[in-house]
Specification:
Length: about 375
């Protein structure tokens, strides 16, 4: 079988949520199925590190698809041309896009429908593109893979899609996320937090991620407890970060809040492993990979009680109302001052994290690929 794969999000040193999903699933898939040929379709120069096996043929396709007009040109014109030339049996797209102008069967991964829930936080042209194309993509795909049960239900609630063609996979945590010993933790703290304990946030700095309320909750905690703990915020600044800047400018504890920017791949596991807790009060997630990464580091989690986050955190997290800063601050208190609560969360995480793995995600994706090929 010849499998064409959309690998636009495999970008060296810039892997984020969808990029890591693509990376980890495909790395396992191509090595587990050497009998099949994989065409990796890039929209820009690619790193040879992404050619995971000898059964992978990388193809760079013009134009670089990073704008709605270029998305259209890439998926509706460039890809059909490549498909006619290379004649794949199936197209696997792990980033939620497909080509409407091809008869090649398609299995597509949908990570979330955030544009429906937070339309004001999506650029106008992008929003128009999503509203026009996503319903058509969902209808055309022979098989749809979601990363959580929440996303599957979200699709079924908003679109007339057959439930039986939606398969639930998951995300996983890379092996570099592991518990740290005391010496390793001290080295991380010395480098990033002046040797002090810290709460950690990992993800894009964006209003939907609720970082501004995290800062306000941290202020409430500090004012009440006068604890030396710091707040480290790791992730790139996305659009519309004004609320975050305003919250920081208004904070009385700016010296204890540190924006780390986009973290290099080798930095993130240590920062996660040395944290007192991951605080992830996002307003909406299709999955929430940092939650799972924290569980693999034996780090307790504070996260939101909405969308997919309860599904991922399970009994291993303190669930909070993300719009209630006092509730977030109270959860911070529990992590720092209630040692029995902290220990119970860590123990629960050791068991719960076994529900999710990249191996499971790869298996669901490959089964969906086979179903798509066999579809009428």
């Amino acid at each position: 079988m010849r499998i064409a794969v959309n690998t636009r999000f495999l970008i060296a040193n810039k892997l984020e949520g969808i990029g890591w999903f693509t990376h980890e699933v495909l790395k396992r898939m191509v090595r587990s199925h050497p009998e099949h040929e994989f065409l990796f379709l890039f929209d820009r120069p690619f790193s040879e590190d992404f050619v995971f096996s000898s059964n992978v043929k990388p193809i760079k396709i013009f134009p670089p698809a990073r704008h709605p007009v270029l998305w259209y040109l890439w998926f509706e014109h460039a890809l059909p041309y490549i498909f006619k030339k290379h004649k794949p049996d199936i197209f696997f797209s792990p980033d939620g896009y497909l080509s409407l102008k091809t008869r090649v069967p398609t299995a597509m991964v949908i990570h979330d429908l955030a544009y429906l829930h937070f339309p004001d936080q999506v650029p106008s042209l992008v929003k128009k593109y999503y509203h026009h194309f996503i319903p058509r993509y969902l209808k055309k795909a022979q098989q749809i893979i979601t990363v959580s049960s929440f996303v599957k239900e979200d699709i079924l609630n908003h679109y007339a899609i057959e439930s039986q063609k939606i398969n639930v996979a998951c995300n996983g945590a890379r092996e570099v996320f592991r518990p740290l010993n005391a010496n390793e933790k001290e080295k991380i703290k010395t480098k990033f937090s002046q040797g002090k304990d810290y709460f950690f946030y990992l993800g894009a700095v964006h209003p939907r991620k609720n970082v501004h309320r995290l800062i306000k909750a941290f202020d409430i905690f500090k004012k009440k407890k006068e604890h030396p703990i710091q707040l480290l915020i790791g992730g790139r600044f996305a659009w519309q970060t004004g609320e975050v800047k305003n919250a920081y400018d208004s904070s009385a504890y700016q010296e204890d809040i540190h924006f780390l920017g986009y973290l290099q791949e080798e930095e993130t596991p240590g920062l996660m492993g040395a944290a007192s807790a991951l605080v992830y009060p996002s307003n909406f997630e299709g999955f929430g990979i940092p939650i799972l990464e924290a569980l693999h580091c034996d780090v307790p989690v504070i996260t939101s009680n909405i969308s997919s986050m309860p599904e991922v955190a399970g009994p291993a997290g303190i669930l909070i109302n993300p719009v209630n800063t006092h509730e977030i601050a109270t959860a911070m208190e529990a992590i720092i001052f209630d040692k029995e609560k902290r220990a119970s969360l860590i123990e629960a995480g050791k068991e719960w994290r076994g529900h999710f793995s990249w191996e499971k995600a790869e298996k669901v994706c490959f089964e969906s690929i086979n179903k798509a090929v066999e579809s009428p």
